[in-house]
Amino acid sequence: MAREKEFFTSRWGMILAVIGIAVGTGNVWRFSRIAAQNGGGSFLIPWVLFLFLWSIPLIIAEFAIGKSTRYGTVGSLAKIAGPRYGWMGAFIGFVATAIMFYYSVVTGWCIKYLSTSVTGTLISSSDHLSLWENFTGSYEPLFFHFIAMGIGAFVIYRGVVKGIERTNRILIPALLVILITLAIRAVTLPGAWEGIVYLFTPSMETLLDYRVWLSALTQNAWDTGAGWGLILTYAVYARQKEDISLNAALTAFSNNSVSLLAGITIFSTVFALAPGEGIKELISGQGSTNTGLAFIFLPQLFGKMPGGAAVQTFFSTIFFLGLAFAAMTSLISMIELAVRTFEDMGLERKRSLAFVATLGFLLGIPSALSLAFFENQDWVWGIALMISGGFISFGVVKYGADRFRREAINSAGTDIQIGKWYNTIITWVIPAQVLFLIGWWFYLAITSFDREGWWNPFHTYSVGTCLLQWGIMIGLFVLANNWMVKRIMSREVSHAD
Amino acid sequence: MPTETLVTMVGAIGIVWGGLVIVLTVALRKERAKGNGGDA
């Protein structure tokens, strides 16, 4: 079945690329804020548990589906669940692509702040909130969105080995060096220890709070890249003898290790440079919840770092360099997913890339120009990722969980055999987590985010907006199912000939 | 430092970073045993 001409050249090349998917901006800004909001140590306990109950099982499934079918999301779901279910794969692919539209904008923000740091403007600024609001309120984000999409498209244009693999071979180790450098500086600041103690101190009260558990599960669902269809897409280019289970564990542990390192760095910095008020700022923050930490609060703290302007500029520059690297490696995988899907349907790779990059830039424009639109898209497609995870689980169950485990996971070349426990997790535990998560987020929308207008499809954080946008896309994909699947499968016949 | 903080710190770091070290070591050994040749 191996139809692809290009494969990752080694296990490490592929692992670094997959870590590039998993490690994104969410590891840095979202993890720290959510950990602070949910009691530090109390959050870490379920967060570690859900690594095994959500992230690793879904990453294993994605690796196995991509490697065994050699198709992107549409073709692979049609292969394992049956031709009637190609629309599920299209939905999985679209969710990641819809995220790509605004994630390119986020990547652009990181590039902008990197340039502002290098020139010293960021450190010399006395009002970071105004700096952020002036930037996001201008047309400048559009320019940086264009740059981000352009760089991402260029990497994909270079191909799997010369583009994706080579870029990640450079950016991921560089990101790790940057994070370790920042962590060493942060933990050696006077007063940093208080932050570390806060991060690791649990309380029985918060540990028994179901909201802390759901926050930990959400964090695993959003920041490991499990269930997005991205790892599945990269696995299409895995060598035939490539292991699945050990690589999945390596990806998940690497991702959570980076989160923990970033958490230690941010908690140390906040407690050392903003004692007393820092933790309140970390929990509530200014500006858009997660972005406020990175683009408003942390720049303020860099300006308080001991050692003068040169040291402050150095550390703010490497921070935003690391953030830009983390964002770019994830963005690349989202572009590749969309390109792969159109390629499967018969579009030549370069044309597919031109189409995806143009569409990505155009459909990212509203998010670049309006934070309200950006937040709506983040809300709608962020929750839709849970459905994507559910569809992957459905595909495996439809194929036969035990058959999938024996044929696709424990295939030739695997280093670790996965036991029958996997059948239970993928059949029951993953779907249960999907239902709990979607139910919880909708419950929050109804009772907290938008009590009056939770049903209104034109409100930013409403249930109505999710149901409308998901409904439109699912309806379109169900209608186009036969056409999509036939196009993909007819190519398989012609290849076999 | 309170005992529960120490236990959580050792537990979280041990499982996440310790887990990474273990899987990385196993992967390195397996890769060495397989040899470095590609099959593409």
Task: Describe what this molecule looks like in 3D.
- The complex is a heterodimer of chains A (497) and B (40).
- Chain A is mostly helical and 497 residues long.
- Chain A is built from 23 helices and no strands.
- In chain A, helix 2 crosses helix 16 (289-302) and helix 4 runs antiparallel to helix 5.
- Chain A is globular.
- Chain B has one helix and no strands.
- Chain B starts with a helix and ends in a 6-residue tail after the last helix.
- With 40 residues, chain B is mainly alpha-helical.
- Per DSSP, the total helix count of chain A is 23
Strand content of chain A: under 5%
Query: What is the helix content of chain B?
Result: over 70%
What is the helix content of chain A? over 70%
Mean pLDDT of chain A: 93
Sketch the major β-sheet of chain A. Answer: none
Strand count, sense and closure of the main sheet of chain B?
none
Work out the number of β strands of chain A.
Answer: 0
Beta strands of chain B, count: 0
Termini Cα gap of chain A: 12 Å
Tell me the Rg of chain A in angstroms.
Answer: 22 Å
Proportion of strand residues of chain B: under 5%
Q: What general outline of chain B do the C-alpha atoms trace?
A: rod-shaped
Can you tell me the residue ranges of chain A where pLDDT is under 50 for at least 5 consecutive residues? 493-497
Order of helices and strands of chain A: HHHHHHHHHHHHHHHHHHHHHHH
